[in-house]
Amino acid sequence: MLTKLIEYLNENKIDGFFISRPQNVRYISNYTGDDSYLFITGKEKFFITDPRYTEQAGYECPEYTIVNWRGKASSVANAVKLIAEESGMKNFAFEGDFVNYNMYAELKQTNAEVIPVNGIIEKFRSVKSPGEIRNLRVACEIADRAFDRIIKDIRIGVTEKELASRLSHYMVMEGADTKPYGNILISGKRTSLLHGIPSNKTIEYGDFVLMDYGCGFNGYLSDMTRTVVVGKATEEQRKVYNLEKKMVEDATKTMLPGTPAIKVYEASIEAIKDTEYFQYHYSGIGHGIGLFVHEVPFMGPKSTEILQENNVITIEPGIYIPNWGGVRIEDQILITKDGNESLTSSCRDLIEL
Ligand code: GLY
Ligand code: MN
Ligand code: MN
After folding, report:
1. 295 lines ligand 1 (CB under 6 A)
2. Which of 145, 163, 261, 326 could cross-link 320 (Cys pair, CB 3.0–4.6 Å)?
3. Could you report the per-residue pLDDT of 102-114, keeping only the tens digit for each?
């Protein structure tokens, strides 16, 4: 990972790279804690943090020079500035989308030219290594096992909040990281809320229950969705569910290396484009996933990216009918050399509890 970054710096004649996005810090250095930054120069690697994390950084990143910004520097940006000046840098890059205005104002007081760049490390991250795929696979297996457990708990009278917290608990008991993840578990008409927050609403007979959730394993995330019905599905619930299932299946079939992401979107709407349900679909039908939940490539009608071997991407078209309900099925797909493999494997058929 670091080799690619150094190559990028050399090719672009940049003397250093200040990394402030937490997932990029982890990706480049393997550090697992919080509130830390990297400053990579052609000659040396600096790990900038505060005394809460210096010991951990020393264990996890022995090849870095650990800088406590609360010492001489008094701010992270000032620590970067001192390093740049001491090593006589002509210029350095920073992540434009992960530096706030105050930090930028301080950084640009250096003698070196400061160059905003976006999405460089994110692009490296979109193609997963065998080790990253192993972690993602385990995160997905944990989410699948939690699904088997939570569907046994769904019954009339239990609140969405209680079920959502049990779902999170099951994943940790199954081996997930403990870092919180915004799990969605919503029911009834509330399932049309694309990112609804679990509430005190109780489960009722006939409700859809939509669970969109996942967990981390060694920092790598799973993200899956299943929608079930409590009791017997109505005719319309079954119709919408089956259309949704067809959308996911049609789209998944096109997820091969070399496929433009826009083609996956086009395949996803094939089943509904001439129906009254077209107006209720959402066009963001999937995203890369790894150390962060929403990564490149993003799949939708405006995508310009091409799927590549070892991308890991969710597929999650959905139909959301306001004041009626919604259905989403989401799986996490590994793009292989000549096809794809779903890392999540829970049943996609309609489950009536
Ligand atoms: N839970 C967020 C998503 O599915 O993208
Ligand atoms: Mn999701
Ligand atoms: Mn997702």
Report:
1. no
2. 326
3. 999 999 999 999 9
